[in-house]
Amino acid sequence: MDKKALQAAKSQLIMISQRGYHRGLTAGTGGNISLRMKGSDIVLIQASGSAWIDARESNILAVDLDGKVVDGEGIPSKEVKWHCGLFRLREGAGAVVHSHSPAATAFAVVGKEVDLVSATAYKALKRVPVVGFAPPGSDELSELVLGAFAKEPIRALLLQNHGVVTVGKDVYEAMYIAEVVEDTAKMALWARQLGEPLRYSFPGWP
């Protein structure tokens, strides 16, 4: 393993983890972010029980696409199975962000898709479906996540009573999508307090 490339990838993961924490996309030790190293089958992910804000080289593990630790000490996040599964499933996927962002998770709690109330949201997301509940870290949850992403070319998914999953070509895009999902959920909730959100259409609208 190229140690220089590994250090650079860890630095990226640390930066994006702290950015997501400061954006309010998770709290405590909730959520997990993974990064696939370019040109390899090596995935970086934080050790279980470590918070995004506390991300550092010492608590970032390198695993193979089966979730087996190949570098670092500790146990990887309990969601590592479907993180690695998404990299096998989606060609070109470079990062996965699993957040517990409050507004988007509120939609997940009631089993509703995020209402794409703005044109920007539709352009970026197209659709944010929700899958049923399964215990965190379970094989059942892994099957639900992978099944949803295999079914259609979505970029984001809600997990009932749990959180949000986004996939991108790199950590920047995956985090950008997570931010758009959360901000769109906030807009939808605020808009409903003022009245019924207006519908809109443009070429390409379904």
The low-confidence runs, each spanning 5 or more residues with pLDDT under 50, are none
Order of helices and strands: HEEEEHEHHEHEEH
The average pLDDT score comes to 95
Report Rg.
Answer: 17 Å
Report the sheet-strand fraction. Answer: 15-25%
Q: Gap between N and C termini, in Å?
A: 46 Å
- Helix-and-strand structural type: alpha+beta
Number of strands: 8
- Biggest sheet, spatial arrangement of strands: 4-3-2-1-5-8-7-6
For the largest beta-sheet, the strand count, sense and barrel status come to: 8 strands, mixed
Question: What does this entry look like structurally?
Answer:
This protein is an alpha+beta fold and about 210 residues long. It has one domain: L-fuculose-1-phosphate Aldolase (3-Layer(aba) Sandwich), CATH 3.40.225.10. Helices cover about 40% and strands about 15% of the residues. The protein contains six helices and eight strands, in the order H-E-E-E-E-H-E-H-H-E-H-E-E-H. An eight-stranded mixed beta sheet has the order 4-3-2-1-5-8-7-6, sandwiched between helices. The mean pLDDT is about 95.
Features:
single chain, 206 residues, alpha+beta, L-fuculose-1-phosphate Aldolase, 8-stranded mixed beta sheet, 6 helices
What's this entry about, in short?
It is built from six helices and eight strands, in the order H-E-E-E-E-H-E-H-H-E-H-E-E-H.
Give the helices and strands, then pairings.
Layout lengths: L2 H20 L9 E5 L6 E4 L13 E4 L5 E3 L8 H10 L5 E5 L2 H8 L9 H7 L4 E2 L7 H13 L4 E4 L3 E6 L2 H24 L12
Parallel strand pairs: 6-7
Antiparallel strand pairs: 1-2, 1-5, 2-3, 3-4, 5-8, 7-8
Helix pairs in contact: 1-6, 2-5, 3-6
